[in-house]
Fold these 4 entries.
Entry 1:
Amino acid sequence: KTTTMTRVTSLIGGALLGLTALQASAATEMPPIPDVKGDVVKADGDFKIKFSIGTTQSGAQYRGLEYFEKIVEKRSDGHIQVELFPGAQLGDDLQAVSALQSGTLEMTAPSTSPLVSMFPKFALFDLPFLFPTPEVADEVLDGEIGQQMLEDASTNGLVAIGWAENGYRQLTNSQHPVSSPEDLDGLKIRTMQNPIHLDIWRTLGANPTPMSFAELFTALEQGVVDGQENPWITIQSSKFNEVQDYATETNHVYTPFITLVSERFWKRLPDDYQQLLREAAKQMGDYERHVSRTMNDQIKQELADSGMQITELTPEQMKTFQETVAPVYDDWRDKIGGELIDKVRAVSQ
Ligand code: KDG
């Protein structure tokens, strides 16, 4: 009887998940492209944008880029062509940013974390547990703080035109379940090339190694590192679950993507086209955040169904993680600016 009941339950569960997947898929349909065909057409010349990202074609970020491409090509009546290069085909984050500065690539949208040496204030987004909800992240990114950061980042051969979402980061590893900092003892955890992330995992007792996103899957597969941390969508779209048996839902950091344009390319665009790219970047970011949040829970469930053992921390266990990493703020408060951190905390109230 139990077996039958179990089978029936799992059939219903599967059906519901199927329904959920269908619902999620319907809920993340691309919105209609503004019916303004050719409303921004300039006679003087055609332009081509190569847009490179590190995440793969099956992630939420790529869905955003497809939307960006359709908006820009439609509203310029094809006078601006956009070609998408996912999966770090044209180089990792830092290589792509360098290519923008030299003018050999037109656009990229990395996480802010690897850019902190260039833009120290970006480290705000690496502070552990600072953004309690996606709504707080939106208010910071779309409000005065985020808009000022875009202005500040529009230098060094770069023009920053919008925000999208990598998301809340979760820990995975190949060794054993993790439900406390003690479980991290001796674990080699890959981090982004970012000093705060190194601080976080050292403070938690792990053995962190900075590495580009492009090298990560191979390093996990070869056991060069035992674990990493990324949002559920990135874990699935980069197939980390194929080489990581354990995950812990830590939500320890919220990471945005920043949409960047090569200044050399930007200066060749007529003002109308510059405005068009800004508007399309905003629409891309809004849509991509919607996709990221709609898919998040379903993808977590799919990872569990694929055999990943996901540890959900109790409030007490989460509190232990939060209290253990609290000293990271002491080291970074002055460098980032206490006032900026307090502003984010005020948004959270
Ligand atoms: O281009 C992709 C990276 O910017 C993004 O995935 C960063 O989360 C990241 C990581 O782990 O490197």
Entry 2:
Amino acid sequence: MTRPNQLPAWQALVQHQRDVADVHMRDLFAQDPQRFEKFSLCFGDFLFDYSKNRITGETLGLLLDLARQTQLADKIAAMFRGDRINVTESRAVLHVALRNRANRPILLDGEDVMPEVNRVLAKMRAFVEQVRSCQWRGCTGKPMTDVVNIGIGGSDLGPRMVVQALTPYTTPALRVHFVSNVDEADLMQVLQGLDPETTLFSIVSKTFTTQETMTNAQSARDWLLSHAKDPAAVARHFIAISTNAKKVAEFGIDTKNMFEFWDWVGGRYSLWSAVGLSIALAIGMTRFEAMLTGAFRVDEHFRNEPFERNIPVLMGLIGIWYDNFFHTDSYAILPYDQHLEFLPSYLQQGDMESNGKTVDLEGRRVDYTTGPIIFGQPGTNGQHAFYQLMHQGSELIPCDFLAAAKSHHGLGRHHEILISNFLAQPEALMRGKTYEEAKAELMAEGVTGERLEELAAAKTFTGNRPSNSFLYKKLTPETLGSLIALYEHKIFVQGAIWNINSFDQMGVELGKQLAKTILAELAGEQEAIIHDSSTTGLLEHYKRLR
Ligand code: F6P
């Protein structure tokens, strides 16, 4: 496979970037009254506005050429077909099967995966109904009031983000909590105030070997048994979500209480599987399935829509335009929707674990930039924290603004104020403020002389800072499903163009290996090994302090 940066479209984009680098979006808007119509798309009740980008029709044409020259269409088809596109682990990548609401057969090694997908969905439904209708009883006969999801990474961030996002659809009768960090403070804080007789622990781990999750699960079991005294209580208070039945049984969880998923579901793409059980417990199975439907609609759009009207393809290409041609390093996710508080952290794993790679599919070191640093915070909080750098700093930071037209609560003018900020920030980033405008404002305030010159310089905003805006009607389960799927496919598009494997995560292994060795050293189970002097110094200091 030719490296993407050696393709004609890439070379043309390098030249094109030089040509348009000094073009200001203010002028592009002024020259073309149709710019918004040209560079925005509707999908259901979603509006995707990408007109505030440093693009012209020619830019898009070249980016679409790049998509074609990197065989993006074939790569999309290969994923949906169940090819083993995760080549290092020799696995298919079929999270799309989990929300295949058309129930079309998807063959993996000649066998349709859909009957298994549907079987687990039915098992989830039966269990969720039992718990939510209080038929599932704890070891002393009481119904469950609290669910604790113990998992980390993909076994935590997705369900945590969705449960928070869909809070208006949850019931106070069944509270869902999340524990991920091996730091005891995380588990202790959640257990405080919980009643072991009415608490259900959901241990979520694809491998069922992850150190943090297993340590938390063990301590949660000790906590339960210190109250219940009878090991039989575990069967009423522990369920497992995993691909590893053997390890689940070894831990002591009855495999009847295990909800399976499969090696073709990547951790960070797993919230659609049984990993989403805590979501379904929080909002009910029907709403969980509505979320699957929202994602399925986007899957259909992604597979079938021509690239020039394909939202995830455009999201991916616009990101590449900045990463590889403007050499930006980061990307901000800015939900003007408090319920999406955890979306930036969720997408940090989704994007950075997927595309944080420097070796391509042929095993060659890449000589172009891959995934950006993802960060963000809900608006308006971010405005009072890091937006200063976005408006006037030396870095160019492309970003996504997201907002719902309707709020869930309708409290006074809150929502309108929020939306005015959602509209103002992308406008300010795009337009900026010229020196002359700043000066005129100051003169109107009576500032004169040297002070005027100084202040006008400090108050000048270059503008020309790009953003996308997503506006949807209301954050419902279906809308959220669509939104997540849009980002999943954006990440896919970028990985495909960069010719990297977006579906392994070898980079997290080295730290895990070293921590195991150090843990054995700390426990005196292993002779001290030779570390660098910094690690040895820290270790010795820790021993003196502990
Ligand atoms: O360490 C990274 C990782 O493997 C993630 O990809 C994954 O989501 C997380 O750990 C948790 O893994 P598991 O579900 O197997 O416990």
Entry 3:
Amino acid sequence: MGKIKEPENTNTKVEELAQNRLDSQDQYLTTNQGLRVSDDQNSLKAGPRGATLLEDFLLREKITHFDHERIPERIVHARGAAAHGYFQVYEGQSELTRAHFLQDPSVKTPVFVRFSTVAGSRGSSDLARDVRGFAVKFYTQEGNFDLVGNNMPVFFIQDAIKFPDFVHAVKPEPNNEIPQAASAHDTFWDFISITPESMHMIMWVMSDRAIPRSYRMMEGFGVHTFRFINAEGKARFVKFHWKPLLGVHSVVWDEAQLISGRDPDFHRRDLWDAIEGGAYPEWELGVQIVEEEDEHKFDFDLLDSTKLIPEELVPVIRIGKMTLNHNPDNYFAETEQVAFHLGHLVPGLDFTNDPLLQGRLFSYTDTQLSRLGGPNFQEIPINRPIAPVHNGQRDGHMRQTINTGRTSYNPNTLSGGCPFQAGQDMGGFTSYAERIDGQKVRARSKSFLDHYSQAKLFWNSQSDHEKTHLVKALRFELGKVAVEAIQQRMLIHLAQIDAQLASRVATGLGMDVPCWEGVQLNLGVPADADPADYQPTPTRKDVGRSAALSMANPPKVGIKTRQVAILAADGVDATGLTTLKEALSQQGAIIGLVAPHLGKIKTSSGEAIKVDASLQTAASVLFDAVYVPGGQASVEALKQEPDALRFVHEAFMHCKPLGASGEGVSLLKAAAHGGAEALLSSDGVITSENTSSLAELVTGFMDAMEQGRFWSREKPLP
Ligand code: HDD
């Protein structure tokens, strides 16, 4: 992949990290003490065949360090990939907030962004059906601000005290540690089936949002309601959104499962390659603003993280743009050691009383203490703010800073009172003076009890194919559940969301939808509470639709970075291939020439061209579209390859654009399972046996690529 644009070196954080980089090119091998090593291949022995000597400090240092290379993986979000970049606001937001990084459009605030899956281990597949983490660290001039969000705007639970239960339920089951990175098992659905507050999130996780095409093509959400506070002290509620400029795209479940085998690093590789190739991913930062006096005007509670604010009620205003333009130098040093925390905040922002948010405020620093080994994790280069750090905190494991002077307390006179406290006018953080007056209770607000209306809103807002995918996902997940009572309870919940949804899922399970009457749902009501106070309220009648919740109509943004497989063998039509490659490259698409073997193939004009992948190393699931150029010998050779026929068939099944010219059309016919004519007349299959109209054909193929997928090919699902 060639560079489209030179990487911009505009990132002050990346520059700051330079002092910690180490390049060993043209250097001697040394110990950690700087001693040059003469033999790194043999340990010190009593004779060439004798025992190894305890004295061998070279051996011991090397092995000791190796023995301690691993740190605990994150308890959730263990698998991730990250990149550096910058954020710029479009225009000053002083009316909304006094946050410095949101004032001046000329300021480029460095960011480090880590994307992740939630349930799987560090080595699990990128393509698990799961929520994706979307954590952004802004290195602002006022200190670090971490926006630790997901690619879904709501969450499974309303109160942080349920988080360990939720995570234990979704993680591999503790007796046999099965299954890895999957929610399709009994403990997850057992928990969910008695946790009605999860139903809205379940709709999102069973939708294709849970299997993104790329990290670059996901939305991000801060989830909670936060506060913006301006210089006059006026506060407003705010919800944060990230809108990808490439639109929101997903793969289909069958494809996701195949990718997990073919390339478990699919998302990680995609992000890396895009940045290396200069196709920098971009997101706009959007905000939904609610005036404090409007807090109670919604039929849901702004403090409830299982609810979103429909964009039709409060529009998303796009206030700035984030660009990722620099890959990390070292995965462990940066991506693994980065520590995010909602409590990393800057003036102009503040929390709300969302009970999920409040609990998170405890968890994130706490977890770093064991994950990164002590209280000095903020000194690790990737976590260091670019703003100066001065305080009386001292010592602890692995302290790096050499604090000078006698005082590490405040107030003091010996250091003239330094470091000084900063008032608000000097950039000091002050908490929003929210009035709080309440009895100490363990309770859930009744305003949190409508668990089904927004789940229905999501279902209503999906297009037909999205609904079908959601039904299929539930059939898959619940189909993997062994205990029938769990499946029944889930069907009861689904029926509260939509009768058709429940009956379609039930058909797949070979069950009937049980009626609610007489079924005892244990909803986890506290021991001495009145169960009546915890019953979900019925789904609202007036639930409409919200276009923003569907992925069906992504913006037309061209085909830049879209991957095209060209299937060819010796004798491929030289003119056809050149026309296609030139047109695709001009639009920024990435081409992979896939042939029966690696090395080179000869075109019809005798030119030897390099093959990018063989039919053994590639698969259609790693591409967005497939094209078969003409050339009698080439196509005849491909027809003899079952892998080539599968390549085409799979791409067709996954509703991807297929193109073929000249003799290439006959490969498509040979690969058709449901009849050649049906395949050729399907949407998104662009073919012409007549090579004189090649340019037109290629344009049609690229239009199809821009459209993405052709869902009309899917078999209707009862
Ligand atoms: Fe969390 C990591 C996002 C609820 C406790 N969380 C973590 C990461 C993301 C989120 C993106 C990975 C950060 C990284 O890349 O290093 N978490 C969320 C969102 C939530 C949420 C959007 C709900 C709105 N989380 C949540 C709760 C708790 C935690 C309720 C605990 C009470 N989360 C953690 C953690 C993790 C974490 C255990 C594991 C690794 C880490 O923090 O650094 O503290």
Entry 4:
Amino acid sequence: MYTQAMDVPNADDAPSVAAPANEAEAAAHFDARCAAGEYVEAKDWMPDNYRKTLIRQISQHAHSEIVGMLPEGNWISRAPSLKRKTILLAKVQDEGGHGLYLYAAAETLGVSRDELLTALHTGRAKYSSIFNYPTPTWADIGVIGWLVDGAAIMNQVPLCRCSYGPYARAMVRICREESFHQRQGFDSLQTMMQGTDAQRAMVQDAVNRWWWPVLMMFGPHDKDSQHSETSTKWGIKRISNDELRQKFVDATVEQAKVLGVGLPDPALTWNAERGHHDFGAIDWTEFWNVVNGHGPCNRERLAAKVKAHDDGAWVREAALAFSAKQAARAAA
Ligand code: 3HC
């Protein structure tokens, strides 16, 4: 879909899009295009802040996909059957692919993959809070599929209609694959729920630990969401953090009944007047602690990611040497 983009733009490359003669007019025209639901493409003129917002969001998203491989990769060698191991391997590989499409989409905005990775490896870039929680049991893997991927789909389907074309197109394939991820998690939990008392208790314990961090994945309440207003104006965000969280709760309550698990929130009740479930207060102190690097596994995740990058240095060197050799041959 996209190039692997091993190369980075040269500092002396001419800008692909000339600055408009009248910036205010160009900005008004741009806003009107977004309001009309048009797609913006990489070579179109765009306001600096639109570009920055997208680089921020797409790169955070890419980092989340890649760091998200770690908690599950931890279980590949311990999956309880060949079938579950094959499914888990496929899922973790899919997440790696999602990261690559997203880095490539971010690169179309004029940032290099090296810059993005350096920001992640030095702790400057964010990735989703959810991947800083541990996976001590096999049930955690099912719960990640059911709840974490379920929440990811809820947030990501609207991104298929995001105003930036390369991001929107990448999201179409990602969402199809995420849908398989959610189904396999539910299927794995359903099997365990039909097993022994100990297996059912393991599922319930994992649901209890993941429920609140999953609700935090949608981001702060709308009133505290600093980027929502501009991102909504430009059609990057189509549905707000709180609306998506509510849709997720409403859908998941029904799925939990089918599974036969409880959700750990005494305040969770159907509100007929609103036509939605009410739910309890989220612990935002915990959320910001995790986002700011102080969650249960932040250090471990970052260290594992940096080690994997360092261990792969020879692959990048070999690929660059091969590409230089081919370029020299072509020039000769
Ligand atoms: N984890 C870490 N940081 C978070 C966060 C979370 N769950 N939710 C919000 N934040 C951060 C924002 O990045 C922002 O920080 P910044 O200014 O340093 O960038 C700050 O909190 C304020 O939040 P806002 O609501 O103002 O930010 P946004 O408007 O960007 O909304 C978002 C946040 C809803 C996560 C949005 O960025 C988004 O939709 N991103 C794309 C989807 C994505 O990245 N999903 C991550 C999970 S991917 C995944 O789960 C993989 C799958 O395989 C399971």
